[in-house]
Amino acid sequence: MSDDKDVKILAIESSCDETAAAVVKNGREVLSNVIYSQIDLHTLYGGVVPEIASRKHIEKINIVIEKALSDAGMELRECDAVAVTYGPGLVGALLVGVAEAKAMAYAAGLPLVGVHHIEGHVSANFLEHPDLKPPFLCLIVSGGHTHLVIVKDYGKYEILGKTHDDAAGEAYDKVARAIGLGYPGGPKIDKVAKEGNPKAIDFPRAKVDEFPYDFSFSGLKSAVLNYLNQAEMKNEPIVQADVAASFQAAVVDVLVDRTIRAAKEYGFKTVALAGGVASNSALRAGMKAACEKRKIELIYPSPIFCTDNAAMIGAAAYYEYMNGVRSGLSLNAVPNLKLGER
Ligand code: KG4
Ligand code: ZN
User: Best of 116, 142, 191, 305 to mutate for ligand 1, by most ligand atoms within 8 A of CB?
Assistant: First the structure.
């Protein structure tokens, strides 16, 4: 354990297809951030193959952790705690990180802190914005989650809205596959859409009755598939860039609408974005324009901290650690862990 009063946490993330480790000081300063992405491997299959992900995590995790420690110029015993994502995510993938973190914490006699993956995404905003403090409104848009939450305090959330079906990233990935862009769809649609006309096709912007802050993307996905089928039946050419841009415009409109509506209703002057889709250029631009109009401050992490990484887990872990949270060596992976649960 370090003898200065700074808290340095070794954090591990393996919930999906990134094997990642980082050392974070006082929840804000990234001393190292190592990510081994398995994306190329899964691209061959058009999506994440859980069994392959687990095997690759096992192969890479020690190398990634050693590099995170050496990049930070530290030994494990100089850390104050070991943190790990224990849910939600793929059970086999999560277990690799959890088992590794438990072994390291036990061997070095360090406390273990289990971290919620989505709490990690939200906390990525603390890494580059030293003045950011709760309360604020946060839109979490990742491959598995779409949540609009009030971050009431560190580790304390009130969920205002969520998706009834697909997550925003999932919709991107499915539509990308349908228009022949492959996995992962988000960054590919983002790029191709820059060449297209967002008004070319009028795709639906779904509202969920009685739930003003909820989302639904399955109707939009079906509308894109119908459009493609109809065009094929009529032997009409499909302009990939126009489909991508029009789909993206529909997603962004809905995300911006719900977020701004909540910011107005609850009087928030700070809005943060989190999760893989938060690196989307159209979402950033659309949200920025809407926020500027209403004098709302918009915050988002750099792209490297939007998609899965361990620095965000180290940031979230710091506040849990300071609140006295300690996970025993009985910590287990919880694939469907809900936000706000322990
Ligand atoms: O947060 P993340 O790395 O993993 C989960 O926790 O799910 O998010 C991955 C998701 C994928 O669906 C990917 O297509 C999407 O984020 N994504 C993007 C962009 N970069 C990643 N979606 C839209 N535009 C992007 N630039
Ligand atoms: Zn994630």
Answer: 142
Which of the following CATH numbers is that of domain 132-301: 3.40.50.300, 3.50.50.60, 1.20.1090.10, 3.30.420.40? 3.30.420.40
pLDDT of 282-291, one tens digit each?
A: 999 999 999 9
CATH 3.30.420.40 residue ranges for the chain: 8-123+306-322, 132-301
- Report pTM: 0.96
At 43 the pLDDT is: 86
Nearest to 286 by CA among 306, 137, 278, 266: 278
Ligand 1 pocket by C-beta < 6 Å: which residues? 16, 121, 142-144, 169, 172-173, 184-187, 190, 275-277, 279-280, 307-308
CATH superfamily of 8-123+306-322: ATPase, nucleotide binding domain (3.30.420.40)
